[in-house]
Structures are given as C-alpha cells and as structure tokens.
Automatic annotation (TrEMBL):
<feature type="domain" description="Activator of Hsp90 ATPase AHSA1-like N-terminal">
    <location>
        <begin position="13"/>
        <end position="110"/>
    </location>
</feature>
<dbReference type="GO" id="GO:0005829">
    <property type="term" value="C:cytosol"/>
</dbReference>
<comment type="similarity">
    <text>Belongs to the AHA1 family.</text>
</comment>
<dbReference type="Pfam" id="PF09229">
    <property type="entry name" value="Aha1_N"/>
</dbReference>
<dbReference type="GO" id="GO:0006457">
    <property type="term" value="P:protein folding"/>
</dbReference>
<dbReference type="GO" id="GO:0051087">
    <property type="term" value="F:protein-folding chaperone binding"/>
</dbReference>
<dbReference type="InterPro" id="IPR036338">
    <property type="entry name" value="Aha1"/>
</dbReference>
<dbReference type="GO" id="GO:0001671">
    <property type="term" value="F:ATPase activator activity"/>
</dbReference>
<dbReference type="InterPro" id="IPR015310">
    <property type="entry name" value="AHSA1-like_N"/>
</dbReference>
<protein>
    <recommendedName>
        <fullName>Activator of Hsp90 ATPase AHSA1-like N-terminal domain-containing protein</fullName>
    </recommendedName>
</protein>
Amino acid sequence: MASQWNSAGTWEERDVSKWATEQLTKLLEPLSVDAAPVQAQVTKVKCNGEARKLIVRGKPRVGFEYELELKFKGAVQVEVRKGSARPSQLEAPFQSALASALSTFYEDLKAL
C-alpha cells in the first residue's frame, strides 16, 4: 500500500536493487541442467541492473532490468549428421531452467 504521506496513491517507488541482485544470484548459482543431450552446472553469475517496487494509482507493481552473464561447465552429447546439429536441442533445457528461476525471482519481488 501507499505511504501515509501519499494518500492518493498516485506514484511511489522504492529501490530494491540490492535485494534483487542478491536474490537473482542466489537463484541462478545452483542452476543445473541434466536433460539429454545437456549436462551443465552454472559456475559464476554476473548480475548488473536495477529493480524497483512501485505503487501506481494505489496498486503495487514491480519493475526491473538486468543484464545476466552465466558461466557454466558441462557436457553436451550431440549427434552430428552431415556436419550439422540442431541448436534447439541445446537451448531448450537451459531455457526451461532459466525460466523457472526467473519466475521464482519475479514472484519473490512482487511479495516484497
């Protein structure tokens, strides 16, 4: 809810960047994928950006913008046919794991 001084609830924002950066790092560092053909573990997370908790016309909202760099180690088993492999086979497991972690982050940010 809006602060006491903002009885109309028009616009209010609070910087939650420190918490958000720590939370993103905490969620992404243990990220691993073990879904054929990929086995990988995140080894380092670099997280730059900002996050804000907003009250707009009396309704709570969140806003954030982050640039993430994930370093990982692992193995990929790819069947090569005539010199090519399908990149989608490599991306799908990572997209799913990352989407899950970011969804958790978003829900935690809304709950602040």
